[in-house]
Amino acid sequence: MKASDSYRIKLGAGAALATTTLVAGLAMAIGAGSPATAIPVLSALGVGAEARADAAAASTDPPLPQALAANRAALDAAPMSAAPWLRIAYLRSRNGQPLDGPALDAIERSYTVAPYGADVTGWRLTFLYDHWSELTPGIRAEVTAEHLTLVTYQQPVWSPAAIKNPSGRLAATFTQARALTAQAKRLAEKQ
């Protein structure tokens, strides 16, 4: 191998790394700054499919089957991303419908692929606390664990103030207090 070939390989690898870093950084910036009404565009794979699914979810114009079809393309492009799974639950409940079996299954899958996904945590916690009374005990445990982890590691990506549902806000308040009490106890033990 000639020196120029080695240089081209290193240059290509550096460019690929820089591009991946840029895309990941943008995805995190978009996820951290997104309002709770839209699931953030997260996937570096299939970004176009994610954008189309986000647009369909944000608009009240397309009927549910069309919005779910757009989301299916995003899910096919990135099945290990939590956002398309959460979008299914959002779409199935966006007209004030309670969370049904497919929506609850999609939420469980979102936790399977990203139990503590910083890119979806803020949106997911708000959405699930707003549907607190409709959740299964297993999903409630996942929500609580994610919330406790968020507080434990002091990640400022979410605030319980966004929760509209009184029962969800109460559950979030108790979870927040539990986490802060445990954190204070750990700090006291260190001293």
What would you note in describing this structure?
The protein has 191 residues and is mainly alpha-helical. It has one domain: Serine Threonine Protein Phosphatase 5, Tetratricopeptide repeat (Alpha Horseshoe). 70% of the residues lie in helices and 0% in strands. It has eight helices and no strands. It has helices at residues 3-33, 47-58, 64-77, 82-93, 101-113, 121-130, 137-152, 166-190. Helix 2 (47-58) runs parallel beside helix 4. It is globular, with a radius of gyration of 19 Å.
Shape, per Cα inertia axes: globular
> Total number of β-strand segments?
0
Task: Write the CATH fold name.
Answer: Serine Threonine Protein Phosphatase 5, Tetratricopeptide repeat
Q: How far is it from the N-terminal to the C-terminal residue, by CA?
A: 60 Å
Essential attributes:
mainly alpha, Serine Threonine Protein Phosphatase 5, Tetratricopeptide repeat, 191 residues, 8 helices
Put the structure in a nutshell:
The protein is an all-alpha fold. The protein is built from eight helices and no strands. The chain has one domain (3-190): Serine Threonine Protein Phosphatase 5, Tetratricopeptide repeat.
Strand and helix map with partners:
Layout: H1 3-33, H2 47-58, H3 64-77, H4 82-93, H5 101-113, H6 121-130, H7 137-152, H8 166-190
Helix pairs in contact: 2-3, 2-4, 3-4, 4-5, 6-7, 7-8
